[in-house]
């Protein structure tokens, strides 16, 4: 597949890294020649320095025979014009644009992106993706990572194992026998910094970080089995009332179980906008690092603080200060990947990486075959993929134990009709089934091949 990626920042670079690693023909375009040089020096990609919206620049990037264009520059307007040029001048079949402004995302104006208006096939909103990720963190407060699959019926849960975890030093095969009714499966383990797909005979040890695919009704029990208590979030303080904080507060207000939410926002205009748009949320104007203001927000009684300003360092420091004041849990928005290793030493419970969530949402739309969902784990080390089985795909009609999956692949859940099951080797994969599997990055191309339709389907 020939792909043009416009924007060589962190998001563009990560997408290029994914696609180039899978032997796609990738060209990166950016008006910053240094960023283009970084991409071409570190990745197996071609580079063009110039403004992505200029027709001659896209022509030099190979737009005449490109299969897809991903517009991920820092400017919404440049991304939109780039997609228009790619469509009108070069007839690029598929165009994806990252748009930040909420005005462009209003459902009232969704007709804007029709082919006869602004021909964008997929619109990605980083703010919405980040808000959804933050809400998932709040829903499973003791998990360091969460993601929903199969329409929310299955949850990927990341759990850090402590020394008092009751199932340490137990083979995974034995765990399946002990908890035979539990609809959950360990699909990934990170040990000493190395991520791998475990075998049935592998054991779990203290300080392991594990990824479990669990039925949504069994998430609480799964956490308890691995030594984590489940507590409902009743009081939440949000530091930062911009698009992300506002989206989270709006979602919490709509929940049936009443959650008391307070927002602290430094900018008066943004604070006033949040106060106007929210009904039950208390909005405080001031600095989220100010201890007096945190005390006024009753931070010591809060179940969680969510730090989502546009400054990583403010988010981390606010999380540390809130925890020191007695807040039970701190979740921070962190863009800089070098800061993520500090989360543990600083006692930050969970973090949300906007670039990672955006990369995952873009990957969901560019995977081949009947792929419906993709979640990128770690530093592009692995993916959890949701895909549909077609009648002509190579795995249709086979038992899981007979499918030639690579060693780094584990099937974690299968949906047959309305029923979601935790599979074993004797589970038969049939046409129409939805499968969720864990795959190390190097095995993703083979997974895509197994879900592609054969040529006689057409």
Spatial shape: globular
CATH class of the domain at 2-124: Alpha Beta
**CATH-scheme architecture of the domain at 2-124:** 3-Layer(aba) Sandwich
Structural class: alpha/beta
DSSP strand tally = 22
Please write out the topology.
Layout: E1 2-6, H1 10-21, E2 25-30, H2 33-42, E3 46-49, H3 55-60, E4 68-71, H4 76-88, E5 94-98, H5 102-105, E6 122-124, H6 126-139, E7 145-149, E8 154-160, H7 172-178, E9 184-191, E10 194-196, E11 209-215, H8 219-225, E12 235-239, H9 243-254, E13 260-265, H10 268-277, E14 282-285, H11 291-296, E15 304-307, H12 312-324, E16 330-333, E17 350-352, H13 354-366, E18 371-377, E19 382-388, E20 409-416, E21 419-421, E22 434-440, H14 444-451
Explain what the structure shows.
- This protein has 458 residues and is of the alpha/beta class.
- Among the domains are: 2-124, Rossmann fold, CATH 3.40.50.720; 236-249 and 260-337, NAD(P)-binding Rossmann-like Domain (Rossmann fold, 3-Layer(aba) Sandwich), CATH 3.40.50; 357-457, Alpha-Beta Plaits.
- The protein contains 14 helices and 22 strands.
- Helix 1 (10-21) crosses helix 13.
- Residues 453-458 have low confidence and may be disordered.
